Amino acid sequence: MCFSATASFTAGIVLTAIGVATVKRAQRKTEIPFAMIPLLFGLQQIIEGLLWLSFQFGFHLLNVIMTYAFTLVSHVFWPIFIPLSIGLLEIVLWRRKVIDVFLLTGISLGAFLLYFIIRYPITSEIHSHIVYVFPHFHNPLVLVIYIAATCISAFFSSHRVINIFGILALIFFILSFWFYYVAFFSVWCFSSAILSVIIYLHFYFRNARVLGWI
Predict the structure, then answer these.
(1) pLDDT interval class at 211 (50, 70, 90)
(2) What range defines the domain where residue 79 resides?
């Protein structure tokens, strides 16, 4: 969360707890990556909480490490991991092939952005929000490909909850971009973390139906 250290750590702890509970409800190995998304969102919020502390106490090394850690997760990891986790759950062949295209696109984008992360210095600043300074990432084509890999890929899943996940992630992305342009990656990542609850409920109600509770 981009608003304060306390908020980031609180969100991180809650999401980590939800993530652990979600992973425990996974029944097959192929379900684990998608079930891990709440846990990973929680760890990402903790990273940003540490980044807030680096500003408050003047820890320059911690600031650099957490800035790059957050950037690697948000710009390199998610475009690859999200379509990968969605594809592992897919049992319809043609849908799996389409999602694999999004995965290849995410891998290409992740490699492209990793090059810029290594090649050019990245810094973070506070302007009421945490702002990550990397103007080359705001290229319209890069954003479109990023949205395709992290949001649109979910539209092709045969699982309704994943469709909802993709739709809401896209809506949050647009709203974050519209209202918080400079800091929108930080704000969107927090907004997307809210989607973790949807993932947990998917596994909870799936298991409840299997056990005959509902």
Answers:
(1) very low
(2) 5-211
Q: How far apart are alpha carbons 75 and 102 in whole angstroms?
A: 15
Distance between CA atoms of residues 164 and 142, nearest Å: 23
% of the chain residues with pLDDT over 90: 53
- The 3-class secondary structure across 151-184, one letter per residue, is CHHHHHCCCHHHHHHHHHHHHHHHHHHHHCCCCH
Number of domains in the chain: 1
List beta partners, residue 131.
125
pTM to 2 decimal places: 0.88
Percent of the chain clearing pLDDT 70 (strictly above): 85
- Show the 3-state SS of the chain: CCCCHHHHHHHHHHHHHHHHHHHHHCCCHHHHHHHCHHHHHHHHHHHHHHHHHHHHHCCHHHHHHHHHHHHHHHHHHHHHHHHHHHHHHCCCHHHHHHHHHHHHHHHHHHHHHHHHHHHCCCEEEECCCEEEECHHHHCHHHHHHHHHHHCHHHHHCCCHHHHHHHHHHHHHHHHHHHHCCCCHHHHHHHHHHCCHHHHHHHHHHHHHHHHCCC
| pLDDT 10s digits, 185-200 | 555 556 766 788 889 8
| Cβ neighbours of 213 (radius 10 Å) | 9
